[in-house]
Amino acid sequence: MSKKHIVLHTAPHVKKPQDVPTIMRNVVYALLPIVAFAVYQFGISVLALVIVTTLACLGTERFFNWMGNKPSSLSDWSSTISGILLALTLPPGFPLWMAAVAGIAGIAIGKAVFGGIGYNVFNPALVGRAFVQAAFPVAITTWTPAFFTGRFSEFVPSSLTAPFMMPPETAEWVKQVAVDGFTGATPLSLHKFQHISTAPFDLYTGMVAGSAGETSALLILVCGLYLVIRKMMNWQIPAWIFVGVVATSGVLYLINPEKFADPVFMLFSGGLMLGAMFMASDMVGSPLTPKGVMIYGLLIGFLTVLIRQFGSLSEGIMYAILLGNAMTPLIDTWTQPRLFGARRKSA
Amino acid sequence: MSLIKQDDRITVDTFLEGIWRENPVFVMMLGMCPVLAVTNSAINALAMGLATAFVLVASSLLVSLFRNLIPSEVRIATYIVIISTFVTIVDYTMQALSQEVYNALGAFIQLIVVNCIILGRAEACASRNKPLKSMVNAAGMGLGFTLALLCLGVVREILGSGSLFGLPLFSEQFQPWVVMVLPPGGFLVLGGWLLFFEWLKTRKQYA
Amino acid sequence: MSGRNSTAMIATLGFVTALSGFLIVTVFQATKPAIEENKRLAIQKTVLEVIKGATADKHFIINEKGELLEAVPGMKGINVYAGYDAQGKLVGVAAEGSAQGYSGSVDTIYAYTPACECITGIKVIKQTETPGLGDKVITDKHFVANFDKLEAKVNAAGDALANAIVAVKHGAKQNPWEIDAISGATISSKAIAKGLNNSAQDVLPKVVPLLPQIEGAQP
């Protein structure tokens, strides 16, 4: 009779492999519907945008691997995510060469110089966007209409700008193709500079101007929930950001409803949903402790509203998340849990 | 006299030291303020570099000439007086030569006084060496500083304004990278150059 | 090493300082004429550029009593630059305007043409606006076209402008004294308008009665 082997093992009893590439691959799956909707909405320009930024990110990652004599790190999917996310935060008609610059800058100064995945302080996609925001302030605030006819067969004229050249004026072209009443302004800038509100329903479903992948709050929410259900994302981060946004804008709205936007509008407009769901929740740049996550989320929400209402830009989520990223090491230090039984240090 | 036995020989290295092995910007990381602030165009970088190089050479000569007369208790004060004299001279000369460049460089000409490269050279080299050797060394340092500033200025001007020394390089449709002429551009380009030089050095070591 | 006593220290410092003073004074004397010439040329260049058709210029100062004086260095008052054409006829008068922009003061020199009672040119001499946005006030052709003929009539009482110069939202210009702002650079556009208005309200009523005198003082 053969001996039976009883396997003894201490906790944790891991049921399924949850390594970095698996999680990252699932994030990519979660992003695909958003990409698909963006392509449906804005046409092949956005498809090209996604391809260009992703290739730029992957290429830069590989270049730095080569520079540092390290094996390729492309298979961990993290640069693919950065590329896709970056494309989703850019205007649909953003010149492709500038998008490539954004991808290169994002991976180079946002990730590679810190030592690659796991060491980056900031979200690489947002670093890339911040770079082009500072370098090309005009192109990144030029919006083109959604659902124009012929969007699957022709590019937005500014997309195919020759490298290093200025994008052509799109105003004439917009007049030709535009759906009635398109002003070339996002709901946020409409509210900020002209005090025009956008219908909430349009915001949920994405029937407004904006960056390629930020327009439909509802879809982003659903895709984010997929990751939450698969336990691949800390749901508390977006939740606390939403609390921060609602609380801050709620107070401002109560003080002066004429001047400040209502919390619902704040929550569903601009890149807040995309940023909160997919960028602020990036595992590397966010705190580890539950209390830290709360501080981090509230801070980002508060800063977003502050920049939107009082800053010179109409959207603030990008800088809010970057500042949150910068605060993370400090937050983690503050909120280290006390060892069981250890005494609190007397001040 | 000094107890340390002096090596009075002037070698090629006395001059080249400041350009490569001990480059004040890329190796010693000194004088970062003008490096970041006035390199938004090649012409500004060149003017700043030459102005600093002049002050460096002239003050090295004077400090070296008086090196045995200056009591060590008041040496720093004396160096500063000498340096500021030449800075004032540069200030007037630059105004007389070109009002435009002078306006662009602004307060940074006066601030050459506190550039630590110059005080550093006076303390480390000129006060211990004969005039000719100090001057050769200072000229190398000055040239190294100018070249470093130019490295930054050229990149920032090409990307930030699409021109070089004020001459447009591209057609009118060129899209300037606004960030490059702003302060962050200075940091980014400096970082890029440092990365490049470090990478070159590491490659040499492993090769 | 040389002496530790204070006499040596004082002597060294004194000697070095004296040498330093001597060098500086020499250089100052040598460069002074060139520097003043440079400054004058810079102003002249701007004035001749901004007053179209002018080939010669003259610098006047209007003092507190409203008298017109030929400028001498160090004199206080309002700077006025007159531009004359080749025949020695007065074509325009330039004055300085300044107002707070988006990130610091925006300084301008503008030309007033008596013939049409309007501002016919403007040049920004100092600004720190955002590159690519605010500095469009210099490069934007549509915006610069505002100053081809911007009305600046002095009112009947002769103490202010008949209509204040104002910047209006892009595309909303209706009156000849309004400035069509640049969309996206409204604050910088407004700064130009405010600088022009503040200066013109004050300077033009003083200059207009003096015009015959300026005309007569041709170089």
From TrEMBL, chain A:
Its cofactor is FMN. It is an enzyme of class 7 (translocase). The modification FMN phosphoryl threonine is found at residue 186. InterPro entries: NqrB/RnfD, RnfD_bac. Keywords: Cell inner membrane, Cell membrane, Electron transport, Flavoprotein, FMN, Membrane, Phosphoprotein, Translocase, Transmembrane, Transmembrane helix, Transport. It comes from the Bacteria. It is found in: Cell inner membrane. It is a multi-pass membrane protein. The chain crosses the membrane at residues 27-52, 96-114, 126-148, 203-228, 235-255, 261-281, 293-311, 317-335. One of its GO terms (cellular component) is plasma membrane. GO terms for biological process: electron transport chain; transmembrane transport. Its EC number is 7.-.-.-. The complex is composed of six subunits: RnfA, RnfB, RnfC, RnfD, RnfE and RnfG. Part of a membrane-bound complex that couples electron transfer with translocation of ions across the membrane. Belongs to the NqrB/RnfD family. This is Ion-translocating oxidoreductase complex subunit D.
From TrEMBL, chain B:
The complex is composed of six subunits: RnfA, RnfB, RnfC, RnfD, RnfE and RnfG. It is found in: Cell inner membrane; Endomembrane system. Its EC number is 7.-.-.-. It is an enzyme of class 7 (translocase). It is a multi-pass membrane protein. Keywords: Cell inner membrane, Cell membrane, Electron transport, Membrane, Translocase, Transmembrane, Transmembrane helix, Transport. GO terms for cellular component: endomembrane system; plasma membrane. It holds the Pfam family Rnf-Nqr. Belongs to the NqrDE/RnfAE family. It comes from the Bacteria. This is Ion-translocating oxidoreductase complex subunit E. Part of a membrane-bound complex that couples electron transfer with translocation of ions across the membrane. The chain crosses the membrane at residues 25-43, 49-69, 76-95, 101-122, 134-155, 175-197. GO terms for biological process: electron transport chain. InterPro entries: NqrDE/RnfAE, RnfE. Its main location: membrane.
From TrEMBL, chain C:
It comes from the Bacteria. Coiled coil: none annotated. InterPro entries: FMN-bd (IPR007329), Ion_transpt_RnfG/RsxG (IPR010209). It is found in: Cell inner membrane. Its EC number is 7.-.-.-. Residues 101-203 form the FMN-binding domain. It holds the Pfam family FMN_bind. It is an enzyme of class 7 (translocase). GO terms for biological process: electron transport chain. GO terms for molecular function: electron transfer activity; FMN binding. The modification FMN phosphoryl threonine is found at residue 186. Its cofactor is FMN. GO terms for cellular component: plasma membrane. Keywords: Cell inner membrane, Cell membrane, Electron transport, Flavoprotein, FMN, Membrane, Phosphoprotein, Translocase, Transmembrane, Transmembrane helix, Transport. The keyword Amino-acid biosynthesis does not apply. Belongs to the RnfG family. The complex is composed of six subunits: RnfA, RnfB, RnfC, RnfD, RnfE and RnfG. Part of a membrane-bound complex that couples electron transfer with translocation of ions across the membrane. This is Ion-translocating oxidoreductase complex subunit G. It comes from Thiothrix caldifontis. The lineage of its organism: Bacteria, Pseudomonadati, Pseudomonadota, Gammaproteobacteria, Thiotrichales.
